[in-house]
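ok trying this again, last paste got cut off
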Amino acid sequence: MPSNFEEVFTKTKDVAQNVGKKGSQYFETSKKKIELLDAKSKLSKAFEVFGRIQYDALNGEPIDDDAYDCAIADIKTYTLKVEEIEAQIEEAKEAADTEELKRSAVELKQEVVSVSKEVVNQAKEVIKSVQKSGDNSDEAQAVEVEAEPVS
């Protein structure tokens, strides 16, 4: 009997650690998503600057070569950054196997229900034994134990 409890506690500990690990992974993914939004915002601003320079050039205004080169460099930099972060987010999604976590939780629930039923059955047996030994006594009381279904 104690080994069943030990197994359940060990399994509970494993599931809790797994949940903690997955929570950490989800937090890191959320941070990456915020970083992605920031990079996309900066890329958009770089395109805006580039567009202004092109518009000014179409209107015959002189082009500042440094500003033009800087706008192109920013576009390239932020495009690469967006692609890199998107790849990191995709890797994190693949690593976060939520199905494994769900399976572990279902297995734990089944084990807890099984052990609980076993404990209730053993308790009934003990109560029956006590009642049988106490039948000769005037103080014998009937005690009934019912197990409620766990959903």
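PB: full thing came through this time. The chain has a mean pLDDT of 79.
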